[in-house]
User: Fold GNAT family N-acetyltransferase from Streptomyces thermocarboxydovorans.
Amino acid sequence: MIRTATEHDVPGILAMIRELAAYERAADQARATEEQLREALFGEHPAAYVLIAEDDESGRVAGFALWFPRFSTWTGTRGIHLEDLYVRPDARGAGHGRALIAALAGICRERGFERFEWVVLDWNEPAVAFYKSLGAELLTEWTVCRLSGAPLAELAASAPEVSGRPVV
Assistant:
């Protein structure tokens, strides 16, 4: 079963985020707190949304997909960015990951979105193979760029005054 997450799910979502970070060899980088997730997912202006996969027989949470809307200047339409897809190791192979991805594809179609995108670590061969089996196109000509930590702070320190800054 796929369902929309509720505030009650926040501790479990955080636990799975930490499990995913450990799998991706970056456990020390998963610093989110329950309070941050509660505000980001269920606050006045949600930053992201979560679908939960539950095992039909046991009712146990098997995985999650955290996503948020994006916008393409080229198509002039919104899309979905899948930030995290995670299925617990003992639940893999039962169709939970495919069901989560299919549910998000359904949201795309229902809302008239033209793109559904995410990133995958190039060394994660099982995930790459899974995504290819769904028909996903791996865009190797694009490189993800990231500013964080000191470089982000240094660049921000040189930011000009912006009038009419939007509230996010």
Observations:
- The radius of gyration is 17 Å.
